Amino acid sequence: MAHRPGVKGHVLAARNARVLYVPSTKVASSTLRRLLAEANGTFRPDLVPYLDGPTISVDQSVHNMMINGLVHMELLSARDQREMKSSPEWWRIAAVRNPYARLYSAWENRILFRAPGQVLAEAWGECADEIVDGAIDIGGTFRKFVAVLSENPGVFGRDSHFKSQSSHFDLTPLDLTHLVRLDREGELARFAAELGHRVGKTLVPRRLNEGLGLSYRDVVDAATADLIRRIFADDFDRFDFAAEAFPASLPAVVASQRETQAIRYARSVTERLEQVSRLARYRTTTRHLAAQTLRNLGLRS
């Protein structure tokens, strides 16, 4: 049975495999991009050294269109788009994830480790680390973040990691042929096998974003769970996620001194990479502008 998601998003097309994909942040999006790129025969990790900006890892480079070889559906002709949206020969896929797990993963990646995003500068002050004996209190810092997200969501700007999954779907009116439920054991692997059968390849989903190895159940207490259910009420209602029971209090989850140092070091590396990336984009833009100026003056063909 097709699922109807209900203005324009950023749908990815694997044209050789005839698959459209509606990405949602922190819902196995790296894994699914790689699966589709491999199915499409367009995965080119060998091109990583030629990217304009720095890349944190080869695994993360799969988000770059030069590496994955996918295309934005919206950039294709109206005729091609109509076919992709309606033809029975095309798959139209998306995935959804337990909101508790998704939010913890988003926080760990975007807030704790400071991965590049669109949060506003004041978010860092409001979501500052809770410190115990010089080490980061992971549980306390996460719960503090959820309270900020509930009370002052504006500080997270337009960053889609902190928007509901439903909001991703509503950007893109498609009848889905596949909705991969990551909350159901083995469903991603089954989808990979089905996709592999479709294209005559053996495809195995790979976990590409390993964090601290903690579960959301290590840091979510009853009060925080209630906030998460309110923030993402549309996801719980739309996708029938269970309202899990959580304890009123939890044992402290505090990073070791070495882990705290590693987190701070990772943040500094990310900051330097962002600076280099901005410089690379500036140089690329400058080259393009200079070339266009020369063409306008008739000095370059």
Task: Provide keyphrases for this structure.
301 residues; alpha/beta; five-stranded mixed β-sheet; two-stranded antiparallel sheet; 11 helices; globular
List strands and helices in order, with pairings.
Layout: E1 12-14, E2 19-22, H1 29-40, H2 65-68, E3 71-72, H3 78-86, E4 91-96, H4 99-112, H5 122-126, E5 131-132, E6 135-136, H6 138-151, H7 165-170, E7 178-181, H8 187-199, H9 222-231, H10 233-239, H11 257-296
Parallel strand pairs: 2-4, 4-7
Antiparallel strand pairs: 1-2, 1-3, 5-6
- Gyration radius over CA: 21 Å
SSE order, as H and E? EEHHEHEHHEEHHEHHHH
**Overall 3D form:** globular
How does the helix and strand content classify structurally? alpha/beta
Spans of at least 5 consecutive residues whose pLDDT stays below 50 are 1-8, 281-294
Question: How many beta-strand segments?
Answer: 7
Would you tell me the overall average pLDDT?
88
Describe the overall structure:
The protein has 301 residues and is α/β, with parallel strands linked by helices. It has one domain. Helices cover 45% and strands 8% of the residues. It contains eleven helices and seven strands. The protein has helices spanning 29-40, 65-68, 78-86, 99-112, 122-126, 138-151, 165-170, 187-199, 222-231, 233-239, 257-296, and strands at 12-14, 19-22, 71-72, 91-96, 131-132, 135-136, 178-181. The strands form two sheets. A five-stranded mixed sheet has the order 3-1-2-4-7. Helix 6 runs parallel beside helix 9. The chain starts with 11 loop residues before the first strand and ends in a 5-residue tail after the last helix. Residues 1-8 and 281-294 have low confidence and may be disordered.
